[in-house]
């Protein structure tokens, strides 16, 4: 979260010779980050980032406290000024009825006091309006403004009720009932859940959503003469859940969900009473009610100078350590000049629990910039071979495809139900995101083809031919446990079937993977008549062909789309940096062409030829005409020259197997 | 007499020749195997010994003359023919079909190489993981805000009693304890984990899927100084030698202390001024790189490592972010749009 505070307000609590720019620089380096300095009217405004663990700095006083610890390290003067507070608890107050009950212990602390405000609601004094406005809080009237003023100044949210609008003068903190209705003070209705916490006036009527927002039925009005100034210290988790559930994100809820110090609640109350007295001419009508069953216990952390040194990497002198901690409100006891017993101030109790937290406090104020910059000593850690191969060959494959003119695309890992339906998939067989923010990305992919076809469709207006590839994981659900995550490489081309095959086969050759192409009939997205598989060492490692015309058409594509989908793991295992070395023949190569009836797939012909001829060195397709095919065969012998007679013999054998 | 005739005839013939082919024919007529010069040489045999000598030298002279003239003419013709060779050399080649790598791939390769140099191995961990690895072991208890519905992407897969719900990893830090477990809790660890991450945010500056690279170093006596050293090495290697790094206090559950890393703005070089105007990229000269810190003792313990013996640092930075900072690719929404107009830029 970010908060805004003004310079003049800060100076009311801090005595310093640092300029706003210096403050920004030094605090950002060692404490809360002051992201911007803005000028609003006459005010200089600091925009400060508050990390979730440092809600104690989310206020003027919190910032002043940090400044007081940090600025001296930069030779700047910094002292806290005392805070003017009022209110007391003498028993002979003319008490007026007020009952607060927290039987379910839903709050850590509850504070309340009734004040008389004889003039009712008025406009706030100019400085209050200016400060609130500069800090991004809308000024309403003096009675409400004071609650916000105290929150910004002290750092604990507070609330004001019209005392007389709670006719029972009773406040019962309890869990909400299922579907219980409330209307918040911004006139919005909410239907509550049993885990929400509400304040009931004893008659079943809800008069507040504590820690988050007040309700319309108890808010101060122009008739208000008596107020109940009320502070509760809430359970941070419950606040967050409720506030997120209904989307009510007030500054109060943002602070309350970060666990502000319950001790601070009293400071806020007394400061508030003082402000009501001075701004709204208030007088205290009741005692201060303080329900505080579990006071925080004292926390002492034991550490040593050597531990701090070992974590930081440089020796920080003992007196520097002690003075840094002291300025941050810690109490430090030193034994033997090395051992430290450190008592944590209440406003840091939830954040500072272990030695490493002390390291952080010391190191940040000492200055991270003052710590040396050095690489750790080198150590060898072996990378598993398959991991290394995975990355090496992924990159090689991508580079190859890029060099032959394909574009790498990265798509979301999830697709829409619509796309799955277009490919006649059953979405129930897919892992899906249960809290997806968009129906477009809900089902985890089990193939990259549908998205690539979609890419073709969406880009068809920009290019005549589209050539893409994607290398990504698919997620195959298992009966139990995590899904099987597999890397898949898919290539798509609308140029020609030959273009797709060239890319796929070129890639396999580039990676020195032996393969043959065979007919296939398995893949649900590919036309049965234009479907092949890549077989390497008797394993099918990929499938390729033309996407079913009807699927493509569903995505508005009328041209043929050719795809290949390859399993990356077997590729990575078979890939080699160099091919298996076969010496070339120094002797003559004899070339023969043969024309036969094309009554079987080429891959089968090759298999048969290779089986019968030992002198065959290469086979390729020279020509195809109608139902005949002309093969070009090359023969050689690595050891000696071959004779025409030998080749003739080979050709006879080949002819006979190709019949 | 013969020789003079031959010379005169040759001169007449060569003068009118304009093509290389004619010239080569002439070459054969005079210098070929049964050319005129060879015929002359055959005639020498029949001469008396003293005549042989003078005839031989005359023949040699004419042979030399013819050879030189033929060469001269050849050069002349070739020179002449070069004049007709002329093209527009600035025309693009016919095959300029250029493919492209995704900008993430390019960055991943750069980053991996940088960390390889200082002994960090790249690992790969699941993108679908249990809450256990994504949160629990990272010191984020079940009540932690990051585990809410609005911060984490939950999956339909059935949950596991011990491991919790199935999620799409919201960061690459799930690799931390997985790497510790792979090494059976025995440092040293020098890991870089690069992967896809998912968070339910989709606006001008966020995509629901993005990439992170995670560094993890665990060993005896690892200090903040070492973290600074490593970040400094990375930043200078990736962004350039003149780039400076700083750490600011921050908060993350799985590191203690925690820092935010800033680098000097790549646009204004840390001066906060571009052409004497305020730099509109950075906050006062610095750009946020990402989060880092010293590994929280609870995380080490969860990975089976004794935090009293070992310490470590970790960081997780966004790749889209470093690309934006280094290459000014600010259109994050195009990364995963599949738009060829974007992809073909790289």
What does this structure look like?
The complex is a heterodimer of chains A (659) and B (346). Chain A is built from 19 helices and 32 strands. Chain A has 659 residues and is an alpha+beta fold. Chain A has five domains: 2-80, 2-Layer Sandwich (Phenylalanyl-tRNA Synthetase, Chain B, domain 1); 99-291, Phenylalanyl-trna Synthetase, Chain B, domain 3 (Phenylalanyl-tRNA Synthetase, Chain B, domain 3, 3-Layer(bba) Sandwich), CATH 3.50.40.10; 300-370, Phenylalanyl-tRNA Synthetase, Chain B, domain 1 (2-Layer Sandwich); 385-574, Bira Bifunctional Protein, Domain 2 (BirA Bifunctional Protein, domain 2, 2-Layer Sandwich); 590-658, Alpha-Beta Plaits. The longest helix of chain A is centred in the middle third of the chain and has 19 residues, at 262-280. Chain B has 346 residues and is of the alpha+beta class. Chain B contains eleven helices and twelve strands. Chain B has a seven-stranded mixed sheet, with helices on both faces. In chain B, strands 2-4-3 form a three-stranded antiparallel sheet. Chain B has a two-stranded antiparallel sheet with strand order 9-10. The longest helix of chain B has 34 residues, at 49-82. Chain B is elongated, with a radius of gyration of 40 Å. Chain B starts with a helix and ends with a helix. In chain B, 42% of the residues are buried. The chains are: A alpha+beta (659), B alpha+beta (346). At the A-B interface, helix 2, strand 3, helix 6, helix 9 and helix 11 of A face helix 5, strand 1, strand 2, strand 3 and strand 5 of B.
Properties at a glance:
heterodimer; A: 659 residues; alpha+beta; Phenylalanyl-tRNA Synthetase, Chain B, domain 1; Phenylalanyl-tRNA Synthetase, Chain B, domain 3; 5 domains; seven-stranded mixed beta sheet; five-stranded mixed beta sheet; 31% helix; 27% strand; B: 346 residues; BirA Bifunctional Protein, domain 2; 38% helix; elongated
